[in-house]
Amino acid sequence: MVLGIWFGLDWLEDHFEDDFHYRPLVRAELATDDERARFGRLAPINPNLVFLAIDAPSVNLDALDDTTIAGSKALSLIKAAHYPFPRSVYGEACDRLLNAGAKVVGFDIFFRDPKPEDTDFQQAIDRFPGQVVIGFNYADYLNAFTLPPSDLLPSQNPTDTTVGYFNFWPDEDGIIRNTNYRANLDYLNGYAGAENLPMPYSLAARMVGSSGCSAQVPNDMGKRIIRFANTDKQKIAAYSFYEIFDPNAWEQNFQNGAYFKNKIVLVGPEANWSKDVLPTPFGNMAGAEIHINAMNALLENDFLQPASTTFSRMLIFGAAALVLVLALLIPNIAGRFAAAVLVAGGYVVAIMGAYNRPGWLLPAVGPIGVFGGAMGVGFVYDFLLAQVEKMQLRAAFQRYTSPNVAKYLLDHLESYQEMLAGSRRPVTVLFSDVRGFTTKTEVAAAEGKSQEHIAKLNEYLTEMVACVFRHDGALDKFIGDAVMAVWGNTPYNFGPKEDAVRAVRAAREMSDELRKLNAKWKEQGREEWRIGIGLNHGDAIVGDMGSQQRTEFAVIGDAVNLASRLESLTKEYRLELLLGESVADLVRDVFYLRTVDLVVVAGKTRAVDTFTVIGEKSEGLASETQKFLEAYEEGVRAFRSRAFGRAAELFEEALKIQSGDLQTEEYLANCREFIRNPPDDAWTGVRVMTKK
Length: 692
Fold this sequence. Notes:
Layout: H1 2-16, H2 24-39, E1 49-54, H3 56-60, H4 66-70, H5 73-81, H6 88-99, E2 104-110, H7 118-127, E3 132-138, E4 145-146, E5 163-165, E6 178-180, H8 185-188, H9 203-213, E7 223-226, E8 238-240, H10 247-252, E9 264-269, E10 277-280, E11 283-286, H11 287-300, E12 303-306, H12 309-329, H13 333-356, E13 360-361, H14 365-379, H15 381-400, H16 403-411, H17 413-421, E14 423-434, H18 437-446, H19 450-470, E15 474-479, E16 482-487, H20 496-523, E17 531-546, E18 551-556, H21 558-573, E19 577-580, H22 581-587, E20 591-600, E21 608-616, H23 623-640, H24 644-657, H25 662-676, E22 686-688
Parallel strand pairs: 1-8, 1-9, 2-3, 2-9, 3-5, 12-13, 17-19, 20-22
Antiparallel strand pairs: 3-4, 6-7, 7-12, 10-11, 14-16, 14-17, 15-16, 17-18, 19-21, 20-21
Helix pairs in contact: 1-12, 1-14, 5-6, 6-7, 9-11, 12-14, 13-14, 15-16, 19-20, 23-24, 24-25
């Protein structure tokens, strides 16, 4: 029950938190709201609302003959121009509708730039003062407006009764469920001095207000959750826009205009081509239809009211208390299960009843989650008690091993205990690191993008670990942005050679996955990342290590340290992957390897031959690449044997095949220097590194 209460309170904190971020419990609650909307009561349709849709028939006029089109100025203009229509057409529509007795005509159409025919439209607006409303747009989330041109709106004032804003602001899951009938974005965001800025009304609010129902338009800027009326189940009166200009339709459908008497008419696009389609609880819906729903909610005063924090908290504590009561009164599991089903079903009926009448959105996820979670714990307690150790082990293993390794260890617990006690094993160790990550982190912090930066890191690490697991490696640890992975540290291994091959394949796949991530990030306008990977093989001590308070299964030894140094060396050699000679010896019959350098890493005294991977031998090499590799490798052998002249010739030959290769150019430069100034007899071709 304590766990249940904690879950419920966490839901409350999540649900009523103002930060705009991904909150799973809130999104789950919003999803239940949508289910209630789809299966619950719809708002009654106000008979005075009419939607004239600019749809495909209105654009193409395929249903009309040429004589009918020629007999109408508006239809002739539409036929000649297609969409967008000349604005004279909308002036004609105003005359036709308002002269027929419509109370107000609104246009869900963005009149952004001035047009020569604006005068015709403006004159129509002037002929019917207070009866025509056109839309404007808030720019993103700033208190900035994109108003119609001055030819249509001489005042250029967003609070002018002739205009209302189009915008709907979705919930954090991107779905539109509510509307602000009045909005000043700076005020809503809490900016100082915003109360002195204009506070415009929405298109829906302006149209309802202009129809003589201004008392029903709220003056505050609070959100109202819409009870939808216009859905697939029922439709507010809608006609194709062109029909008001078609004499036959005007007579038959609209009784020569009498139909529009006292109507509130919205003109707007309704087709996929308009791109004015927004997600709602009922699926994608044309923006104009959402405006219709917003007006209908105002006219019918039919909105939904979410439960308060206090009431939600009471329901959650009540659900927890009910679990305790049922546990005390009904010890039999089957009887308690039947009671739980009845209680849960009864609450679902209650929240649907509250939704339908009087329009309360009672919380679903918190109370049901508390009740179901707490009851569920009781039902499965015995089973969990028997399985808890195995489940804990599986959870621990799968954090740092592949499913294959985890399954093996769970099936061989004696091997697991032996592994924890500590032993010396031959292992292959992989270190990878993101180039310049510290600088990237500092820049992200300075720009206020730390959360985005962490999300990007998590996305990267997820893909990198997946590569390790796909090749049956174990994740040893994350060191900031660095990944340390090991093969051979558990009883589930394939022997030193196969472990090394799998490690190399994992490293190459990590590079491939990063290229895919970079391509995606580039499309998103985000910075690309580069990594270095070092691989080494050798004996290491593996076991459970740490303090009495905390331990972890770890790998220590010189082989581990050298793998880390090799990863650091990738920066010096401008390579993505560097192998130590111990790994190279195990995998050279599987991969084409290229010698990099003979180097003494920082903190060591013995030189290590280093290599990088060109490709898998099973896939073959292009003939040019093969020739380049042969010349390059022979050049390295000549260089190390002090035959600098011969080495230079070979490196020049290699560069003719593959120009711009950095390692080859560096070797060639060294050869030329040594030809001019031969090294002393102590020279062995070893490069000594002083930095880690």
